[in-house]
Each structure stands twice: as C-alpha cells, then as structure tokens.
C-alpha cells in the first residue's frame, strides 16, 4: 500500500512487515525518512517535521539524508547520478561541458496493477533537458521494495547530447545505529558464494564486477545488521541488484552511525550511456528488503519474492518442477585430462562421447530416473572453428560429436522418456574460426591492441544489432533443426579488451551486451514457450536476479566436491531459492579439486538441497552403483516439491566440522537434509531442533512411521543417528 501525506509531497510504502517513507521538501530536496518496521502515515509526517541536523564546517546537512544523491551542490557523498552535457553552448558563457544536476520536482504518480503498486517521482533539469523518474514498486503481500530510475533527453533536435557518467538504480539509507555489520557473498571460480560477515568500518566498502558478467568473485547482494542478528532473530536490511553485467555496490559508513548503499550497472564512472534528444535509459532494478526475523526470515522473504515475481514458469506450486538432468562427461581413460571431469569451465577442452557412447549413456540415465539428457553438441562454442568437428559440434541442428544427426538422437532420447538439452556458448567465438574470419569486427577489441584470448575464445559484441541477429538466427536454426527442449547456456571467459572500434560511444558496449543477452533470452521464451534455459559462466559466474528472471536456473559452481558444495550452497541460499540452484553429482572416478572421496549417500544428499543432477561418465558406474543412484534419485523426486517451493530453515551452518542441516516446510510436509562432516570422540550427533512446525500437531516420519509432536521436535529435536565421517541423511515428516 502507498499512502500520500505532507501536502502531497510525502509518501509511505507499507508492506506486511515493513515500511518505507520519503519526502520532497519545499526546496525540492528528496529526503529519506524511514526504512524498517511498520509505521503509520502520521509517524512519517512527524519524522518529516523534525529539525535538520546542525550545520558543521566542511560538511553538508544533505549527506546521508538524501534518497538519491546527485552530483553537484553541497554534497560530498558518492553520487548516484552523474551527468555531463556534451557541449556547453547553452551553459553560462558557453564555457564547455557542464556537469552536475539541479533538478526541480514536477509531479508524482501512483499506479496500481497486477504487479502491485508503483510510485513514480518525476524531476526535471532544465539546463540538461533531462527528465528523471525514480520508481518504487511494492509487490502484493511482499516486503521487497523494487527501485529503479529512468532518464530521458527531452531537448529539441540539435540540442547537445548528454552523457550519463553514472546512473545508479538506487541509494538505500539505513537508520542511525551505534555499529553495523556487513554480510556479503564472495569467492572465485570453483569456490563461489562464500558467506562473509564482518563489522563495517568507517568509510566505503565497494564490491562489484569489472568482467562484463556478474562474476564468481562477488554477488550483487548485501545485508546489514547491528551485529547482533542471528538466523531467526534481529533486524536485517538487505538488497540485491538485478543485473548480469559489470556492476558496483558501494556501502558507505558515514559519520554519526548512518549508512548509505548505492548501486547499479557499470563498474566505474567513465561513462554509461550517451543520450541524444529523444533518447532514454532505464536502470536495472535494485531491490531492498527489511526483515525483523533475522537472516533466516530475510532469506525466506527473498525466496518467496523470486518464486512469486521473478522466476519464469508460472506461480510456485503450479510451475513444472526442475528436471533431474544428466550431462555426460568425457569418457574416462589414461589420456583424459583431470579438468575434463569438472563441471563447468575446462570441460569443453576434452573430446566428448561418440554417438554409440551417447546412446548407451542415455539408456542408462533413463533407467536411473534421469529426466533431461544434456549434450555438448556445440561443444565449447555455438560457433566452432571447423563446423562439423568434435570441437565445433556441427552447424546448429546438425551433428553430435563423433557423428550422428542431432534430430535422430533427440528422437531416441524422447523415446526413452527424457527431454533433450544442448549446451551452447553463443557469446564467444574461436579465433580464426569461420565466423571470426568473416566478421572480425564483431569481436570486442581495442584498436591497435592485441586481443587477449581466454579459454581459447574471443567475446562477441552482443550490443551490435547485426551480431545479435546472427546469434538469434543460429539459435533458431538449432531449435528448429532438432526437437531440443533445453539450453544449457555457458560463457567461458570475461571481457578484457571491451572496445567497439568506430562507434561514436564505445562505452555503451558494457550495458548494450547485457541488453542484447536479455533480448536473446526473451526472444527464445517468446518463440519457444516450452523451452527451458539454464545459465552459467564456467560455473557460477552469472548468478543474479536479472538473469534468473529470464532463465529460472543457474549453475552454482564448477566444483562438485560435496563438502565444498555445502559452503557454496549455504551462501547461495542467503538470497536465492533451491529451485534456482543446479546441484550435480559427478559420476565416475573424478577426484575433484581436493582429491577427497565421499559416499554416494553424502554426495546425493548434498545435491538434494537444490536441483539434483548428474555429470561425468556413467559408463564407469556398475549395475550396483547405478541402482543405488536410482534409489537416491527416486527419494529426491519424492521430496523435490517441498525442497523447491518450501520455506527454508538453516538449522545449522556448515564449517565447524560437525553436523549441518537445512529444513524445508511446505504445507503438511517437512524435509530435513542433514550432514555430519566428522564424528569426534565417539560422541553422537546432536539432535536437530526443527522450526516452522505447529506445536500441537503430530508429525509422522514417512520412512519409519514414528510420530512426534511439533513441540517435541522444536524443543528436544530430531535425532539423526549420523556417525563416522561424511555421513548424511534425509528425513521426510508429514503432519496429520
């Protein structure tokens, strides 16, 4: 609900458990009033009536109070908006380009629709001929506030162009507190989404990506608390940026205990977009959430928001369940490189199975309960150096590596009761390949500089309409040439020489490439409504709300080491739901990065916390192992609806070497996944105190028939009988 007060210049956005308030003063200053626990409109008006802070030398009373700081005037915080006119003929004296913004408030709009209520605040800078609109949207029965901006050049023809050096989506202002603690997700390739929490020191803490994609190193998410919040108690403020390219989020701890968080597309202030008269720019969404129930309640709210309003496929409980996928790895042998058995980057370098092996692998996979068979028919890239080779994989819709028409094999896979997926890499090209030779200008490059190859690839410029049209045509040819049901979309390298020779404003490549990528995803969904897509970048290098709105599922990490995966999945769950997280089990002799063995039980229970899948070489598994894997897949399918759509409770985090566990609650069903890393001194594993249950209700263990009351499970816990090293178990309880 959005209420208006303060003579039409104050607004209060109210969710089920939160409130957000802001006002425009008589001097057209847009000030933040409140973000936190629910308040009423008179409370917001009382906050607006409080006197401003006292003026101090060399400081600004606006700093830390503005809703969207702009460059110019008495401001010393990081600006969210930085504008430069291309020519200064209309400025005072015509002395060259003019920077900064001096806006006037024009009007507000409140629009209601099926997506919720939206507040629009319209401002205008007459010198720049710039219209700026700040957008705020509340979804129904949701505490997430979505914020973004739109900017438009409204000058007449011949008016000088404008350069948006920086146009962030939002600045979030937190209340005064004595101290703050920051949570973030960091890592590297093969070790993504590691959760880190530390006190926030005075000054700025900046996270982001300069790589052209979201990156393995940082996710565009933050959480802030007073240092006392726990999993199920305390106030938590968090935010997530819906953007799949380079980005930046700056967390500033200002004097007086106030914090501001500013974020948006682009990694620096060198220039975002050039606007000519009639041109416009829309920022990505920067969503924010206040929770009074600790980090667990915040995660559950983020998960519900994504299931209800972000992920494609329909509302939760009605959307098709994510299938169990199998992606064959290279056949094992003395000459097979170790990297070839890893999931993600590196795998594309090794030759894959031939047609006969694919047929046998598909038969075995179907017998085990696999629902989606994914081939590297376009191995390493959609555009190979020699179409028809094992590396190039044939023209889209053509042949499998090792021979055999893709369409014929797709029919065989469908006949086994599975869907067919194809792994593609449409954003890169092989140096010297047919496409590169024909169109060298389609590759990102800086004139006069050597282009750096990574993973034997160069990056295409998807900001170019001709490149975008070509890639879309190749994808259409693939999907029309064979009955393909799924695309596993990968990219094996980051941007380096991100140039666009000959373009008037080459910096636009950074945002234009992402908009091109989104256009491809949107076109695929419109033209092939039954097609599903999984996005990856050598593992977890492209994980964010922007890509999830178009694909619904992402690769989480290149590692399939189950112990490492517990930490990766723990971090991933802070923001994203289980239904978005690919979680493969590697078949065969792949040792993983730690050369650590683990039981089938431990590996499968770890993968059950997301979208369970398989990769590697099933030919190495004998009948006994395949039967065991089939039993785990069947168990997973029985609990999959609860894991994917249920409320998550992180009962115990991984990392201390003992028991860790997660719990999912959906209606009458509760599922607990528990892991024991190592038993010490023969001590039994501590019972797990469950959450989210009705105290007076009876809960029956589906496997054993044992019945316990919710109050007993909450107070005395669930006994797991885990023991030894790397043990795991699944518990399915049903109420009634």
From TrEMBL:
This protein's UniProt keywords: Glycosidase, Hydrolase
Residue segments, region Disordered: 327-352, 385-407, 428-447
CDD domains for this protein: GH36 (cd14791)
Enzyme kind, highest EC tier: hydrolase
Domain Glycosyl hydrolase family 36 N-terminal: 29-275
Entry EC number(s): 3.2.1.22
Biased composition (Gly residues): 390-405
Keyword Hydrolase part of the UniProt annotation: yes
GO MF: alpha-galactosidase activity
Catalytically driven reaction(s): Hydrolysis of terminal, non-reducing alpha-D-galactose residues in alpha-D-galactosides, including galactose oligosaccharides, galactomannans and galactolipids
Family membership: Belongs to the glycosyl hydrolase.
Name of this protein: Alpha-galactosidase
Organism lineage: Bacteria, Bacillati, Actinomycetota, Actinomycetes, Kitasatosporales
